[in-house]
Specification:
The chain is of the alpha+beta class and 273 residues long. The chain has a single domain, classed as Cupin (Jelly Rolls, Sandwich), CATH 2.60.120. Helix content is 24%, strand content 34%. It is built from 9 helices and 16 strands.
Length: 273
């Protein structure tokens, strides 16, 4: 494969992690190191008969249904798949971003009926959530101790697979934690990712912003082809995350994310220094 596995750390020693990966700017998969985050057991239930996948515990979240959250609605011309999505599923999409009560997302995500589009609660700042939900997502010690202890920002991501975030980079180190379901992340070193992005971008594109041009149209298709297309030549790293896993993404590393499987996918990330 043109994407090599990210280093896996089954035991997280902060001093060792700082020396071996954080200071060197090398990605690492922190296997099962975040399984004690309260949201994992409170917000989600295991998906019946499908190990590794989850359903949303809507009853726990419904009392907070009036809080306003950012949502993205993606409509695709291709049917959804329960396996790792192939490139065709992400072409010919329309994309709309808006804000709405959390109850809108809960209703759509809990419905047994097929939807004409996929609703994704994306890039929701934890600070905008009610205090009880914030308490379910405490900042992990490694984020507070491995660097300067400066927390730059954070985001919550919830949606039915398949969801995606096209190739982009972050201005700060990032620890991305999978709460429920599974996601695959492909990473490119800074100089390689920059070259891929420059070949694909539109005139109005921005490498750090989840903008309209990144989420639909020709720029999105070119970015997806470069990273996920069967005939792509780009080489990089890959990590598959399950519940309780975390991925360290160094500053400036380009990455693209896809969820797959059944039920609900939930993630949270912290940008820090």
């Amino acid at each position: 494969s043109r994407f090599r596995p990210v280093d896996i750390l089954d035991i997280l020693n902060i001093e060792s992690f700082r020396t071996s990966h954080f200071n060197l700017g090398v990605p690492a998969l922190l296997r099962n190191q975040f399984r004690h985050i309260p949201a994992i057991s409170r917000w989600f239930n295991p998906y019946p008969s499908k190990p590794g996948f989850h359903q949303l515990n809507a009853a726990y979240l419904e009392p907070h249904g009036s809080v306003i959250v950012p949502l993205e609605l993606t409509r695709a011309t291709h049917p959804l798949s329960d396996s790792i999505p192939d490139d065709a599923e992400y072409h010919s999409q329309t994309f709309q971003r808006f804000e709405a009560p959390l109850s809108v997302f809960l209703a759509a995500s809990s419905s047994p009926h097929a939807s004409p589009g996929n609703l994704y609660l994306a890039q929701c700042s934890l600070d905008s959530l009610p205090l009880p939900l914030q308490a379910d997502l405490p900042t992990p010690d490694v984020i507070l101790k491995v660097g300067k202890g400066d927390l730059y920002a954070n985001s919550l991501w919830l949606g039915r697979p398949p969801t995606r975030t096209p190739l982009h980079r972050d201005p700060n180190p990032n620890i991305f934690v999978q709460l429920a379901g599974q996601k695959v992340v492909r990473l490119l070193e800074p100089e390689i990712g920059r070259a891929v992005y420059e070949r694909s971008r539109s005139a109005n594109g921005h490498a750090n912003i989840r903008g309209q041009e990144m989420m639909e149209g020709q720029e999105m298709e070119r970015l997806e082809d470069a990273v996920w297309g069967e005939n792509g030549e780009t080489k990089g790293w890959e990590a598959i995350l399950g519940s309780g896993d975390g991925l360290f993404i160094p500053k400036g590393w380009w990455h693209s994310v896809r969820s797959f499987g059944d039920g609900i996918s939930g993630s949270v990330n912290w940008w820090f220094r």
